[in-house]
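Narrative progress, year one. The postdoctoral researcher (J.K.) led the effort to move from monomer predictions toward full complexes, under supervision of the PI. The following entry was the first complex the group processed end to end, covering 82 residues in total.
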Amino acid sequence: MSQDKKLTDAQIAEIRKDFDFFDRDLNGQIDLHEFIELLTVLSPKTKAGNVQEGFAMIDENGDGFIDFEEFLDWWKDGWWEY
Ligand SMILES: [Ca+2]
Ligand SMILES: [Ca+2]
């Protein structure tokens, strides 16, 4: 039942900043190692075993990287929201 939440440009810019922050090697994609760091910061309670599962869930096209679009979708879903 979740509505497709519209993000404002300002929100997208914020998310972009986070994405760039966690994209340590600045290749425009978040790999599994970068994702682990991200989770450590955003969601410290995540169990190690769930990391790969979570990564696979976000990596919609299954290429082994999270690109900004996939990251944005994940964000919109509010997976980590408190
Ligand atoms: Ca990267
Ligand atoms: Ca991907």
